[in-house]
Amino acid sequence: MSKYWALPIAAALVLAGTACGGKAEKTETVDTSAPVTLKLGTADDDSRPGGLAIVQFVEQVRTLSGGKLLIYPVWEAQGHDVQQWDQVVARMLKDRKLDLAMIPSRTWDTEGVTSLRALGAPFLVTSDALADEIVTSKDLSAELMAGLDKDGATGLALIPESLRHPFSFGPALVTPVAFKGKVIRAAKSDLGDATIRALGGKPDDPVGDAIGAGVRDGTLGGAETGFVLSDTLPVPGTAAANVTFTTKVNTLVANSAALNGLSPENQAVLRNAATATLQWALSHRTTEAANAAAFCNRGGKIVTATPANLQALSQAVRPLYTQLEQDADTKSMIDRIRTLKQSVQVPRTGVATPC
């Protein structure tokens, strides 16, 4: 029987029973209202770590709401071959073209959000283990996301992804001299760009065919990325395993107006689903060692910088800390992360092996 006929016929039978003087049987009220739907945008596709977390979040929301709240991912929401890809998604969220988004924390400093800068401070968050401690600290993660409200966003969770290293298409990038004058591909971020400049490089964010062309003609010297994403490079190149700019952390965020327009029950579903997704990501993320081994199997080379090299790199970025710590809140968070770092034990699987 067609669903379009089932309800009218059922209603007619109830009315007929009443008209005959009989007592109608008690029936349960069925909620036939349509589910609430929301769009979640990302610059990733569904094969990347951020995309996999989104798939999990979508399922958590559906399950926790009993299907009454549904999330529809918008993969590569920025379009193809678009520079500042993450910023495009952030602005779509601000303009209510998206209800939710998965956006790297580094992205927000170009959009006027300063509270997340401690996560991108160079050579500070240098292990997944430390990133895990930060994102699971309710107080610290809440403070880091607090500034998102300046851009009309509300943070639901911080979800760590992977360590970020310099990958060279020539000599290994293990000293400021090696960086000098080299164009380094990096996702747009004011602090990220400043880090590469402080090391002597030139940040850029070429897209599409321009990346391969830059490698072939020698104008692109390297890239800032992680082993888990290194299969997207035009050639594997040489990675400096212990030169870790930072750990990429994604922000799972909602447009504040869209969030406030939901019922309290649906707001709670989103927050609980975000927490569950974070826990899923922590337990399902591939290790640094495994990702590095896969990189080696694709023909990549991994080297390590000497203690003297690392000291020179740290010295080069010291002026950035002077600037960052002029903001009292940022200084406080950097200090807290430094203290936390001293107590974190990095497992062997959290370290890449040279090859």
From TrEMBL:
**What PROSITE patterns is this protein classified in?**
PROKAR_LIPOPROTEIN
What UniProt keywords are attached to this protein's entry?
A: Signal
* Listed Pfam families: DctP (PF03480)
One of its GO biological process terms is:
transmembrane transport
Q: Where is the signal peptide?
A: 1-21
Judging by the UniProt lineage, the source's domain of life is Bacteria
Could you identify this protein by its name?
TRAP-type C4-dicarboxylate transport system substrate-binding protein
Name the species this protein comes from: Kribbella voronezhensis
- Give the organism's phylogenetic lineage: Bacteria, Bacillati, Actinomycetota, Actinomycetes, Propionibacteriales
